[in-house]
TrEMBL record:
Entry superkingdom: Bacteria
InterPro entries noted in UniProt: ARM-like (IPR011989), ARM-type_fold (IPR016024)
SUPFAM superfamilies: ARM repeat
Protein name from the UniProt record: Uncharacterized protein
Organism per entry: Chitinophaga oryzae
Length: 171
């Protein structure tokens, strides 16, 4: 399969699911997908991010060797919202190696503090920070302050629901 061509042609969910199915649990195919995600044009990157999230849901072990690259991608300025959303969706369910905790934490705090950031991105960032608070209990107060501010200034149902869950989990 010519992966880039298929990704560009995949404009419907069924096509995206087909590409994700073709990748399956194959580490070499997944590595090709990651290369496109990290190096290609906007549309390819955006669709690759969606496929990555679908594959990682079924085969999270494929993500492990690529986590440093994914985290580095998060630190890139001007990243499309779809990419951030899908990267965070994957990371919220991953056990991150300790050397990535700092960069992931920083990115998630930045996303929560940005009033222009999309609700889904903030929701995933909340979950990731909640997960990291287990290892770093000293960030719980900062998370609480940010969530209280979010609830005051952006009381959308998505923010409210996720913030309440995170507040319960961090105590």
């Amino acid at each position: 399969m010519e992966l880039r061509k298929e990704i560009l042609a995949a404009s419907y969910k069924e096509q995206i699911l087909s590409v994700a199915g073709w990748i399956g649990s194959d580490p070499k195919r997944f590595a090709r997908l990651m290369q496109l995600f990290l190096e290609d044009e906007y549309r390819v990157v955006q669709r690759s991010a969606w496929i990555i999230s679908l594959v990682a849901e079924k085969h999270p072990e494929l993500m492990t060797p690529h986590l440093p690259e994914m985290v580095a991608r998060m630190e890139t300025g001007g990243l499309p919202s779809a990419v951030k959303r899908n990267v965070l969706r994957v990371l919220q369910d991953m056990t991150l190696p300790p050397d990535l905790h700092g960069p992931v934490m920083n990115a998630c705090f930045q996303y929560l503090e940005d009033p222009r950031e999309m609700i889904a991105i903030k929701a995933f960032a909340m979950t990731i920070l909640s997960n990291l608070a287990v290892a770093y209990p000293d960030i719980k107060n900062e998370i609480r302050i940010l969530l209280e501010d979010l609830l005051e200034h952006d009381p959308s149902p998505g923010i409210r629901s996720r913030a309440q869950k995170v507040m319960k989990s961090i105590g």
